[in-house]
Amino acid sequence: MASDNSMVKDEGRAALIAGMACYLLWGFLPLYFHALALLGVGSWEMIAHRTLWSVLWAGGLVLLARQGGQVAAVLRQPKTLGILALSTLAIFANWTIYVFAVNAGHVIEASLGYYINPLMNMAAGALLFRERMSVEGKVAIGLAAVGVAIQTLALGHLPVVSLGLALTFCVYAILRKQVKADAQTGLFIECAYLAVPGLIYVLHLQSTGAGHFGGGVSVTTLLMLAGPATVVPLALFAWSARRLPLSAVGFLQFIAPTIQFLLGVLLGEAFTPMRALSFVFIWLGVAVFAYGAWKRTRSVAA
Questions:
Q1: Which pLDDT score is estimated for 131?
Q2: Residue in 52, 88, 66 with CA at minimum distance from that of residue 189
Q3: What pTM did the predictor assign?
Q4: Alpha carbon distance 73, 67 (integer Å)
Q5: Burial degree of 24 (CB within 10 A; 0-12, 13-18, 19+)
Q6: What distance in Å separates the CA atoms of residue 298 and residue 302, rounded to the nearest whole number?
Q7: Which of 284, 300, 293, 294 is nearest to 115 (CA)?
Q8: Side-chain-facing half-sphere of 110: CA atoms under 13 Å
Q9: Residue 296 reports pLDDT greater than 60
Q10: Is the pLDDT of residue 302 over 60?
Q11: CB 230 within 8 A of CB 91
Q12: I need a surface site. Which of 190, 216, 226, 265 has the fewest CB within 10 A?
């Protein structure tokens, strides 16, 4: 009995470490794109290599998990393939907005999107799946809405990057909720969809002399790292999320946007008092959301 409890604790500790590693990797991702930009790589080339190398790593995960049979089964299901095609468009839109935002110096605005995303997911769950929304959830969404309104005033326009990132990832989550397949299988098929146009674009760049692959050890290595930089955090997330309580996931998912926010400030992006006020409301909403998640977990445990 003591041995079983020890194993459970060890797995829980490993899941927590995996979850933290996932969000740390996502948090520092802007530095990766900045490094590529300094070497002259454009946003579209970054995205193309991201799609191309990701399929190899996602395929490797499928082999490690021995899910080849599941992939074959999904390939015989037109409806599932159709849903995965739509989720592919959603995640591609998310990647595109994010890479262009980072390279245009909008890391702070991008971080706001990932603060909003969990709250948008909660609202979508209530509207589309009739999931019950707690009082804390309603308060959190209200505070976030105030934060977005203040951010709009601070920027002089809607925070399109923030809302675009939150919305595309929310749509992605909704679509993937409909797919009856493991995370690795779905990710591999999504990457396979994207790899074809990605390969065509990379070959076009290389043939015209505009491509950077093979142009030096540093840039070539960084471009190849687009695969693990994309797939490894997703794999860590999928593994840890199944083993961690909701409250832990609720806290961990805000690590990445917090790091991105700090990076944006350190990189010298404009951070006016009005923008600071908008983040105060967002952070209050996050705190209420995390408290609600913790309270729900406590009630279930009781």
A1: 73
A2: 88
A3: 0.87
A4: 10
A5: middle
A6: 6
A7: 284
A8: 27
A9: yes
A10: no
A11: no
A12: 216
Q: How far apart are the C-alpha atoms of 257 and 102, rounded to whole Å? A: 13
Q: Band of the pLDDT at 80, cuts 50, 70, 90? A: very high
Res 262: pLDDT: 92
User: Are 84 and 136 contacting, i.e. CB atoms less than 8 angstroms apart?
Assistant: no
Which residue's structure tokens are 């909403």? 285
Residue type, 106: H
Residue 137 has pLDDT above 90, yes or no: no
Residue from 11, 70, 290 nearest 3 by CA: 11
Lowest mean pLDDT among 53-62, 86-95, 229-238: 229-238
Torsion 157-159-163-164 (CA) sign: positive
The residue assigned the tokens 């990189």 is 267
Q: Which two tokens stand for residue 258?
A: 């917090």
Q: What is the pLDDT of residues 234-275, one digit of tens each?
A: 888 877 877 776 556 667 888 899 899 999 999 998 888 999
CA 253 – CA 255 distance, rounded (Å): 6
pLDDT(3) > 70 = no
b or e along 105-120 (b: 16 or more beta carbons within 10 Å of the residue's beta carbon)? Answer: ebbbbbbbbbbbbbbb
The one-letter code for the residue type at 258 is T
Runs of H (alpha helix) within the chain: 2-27, 29-38, 43-64, 68-74, 78-103, 107-128, 135-155, 160-177, 183-208, 217-224, 226-241, 246-252, 255-266, 273-301
Tokens 């806290």 — which residue? 251
Counted residue by residue, the chain has a size of 302
What's the CA gap between 26 and 110, in Å, rounded?
Answer: 12
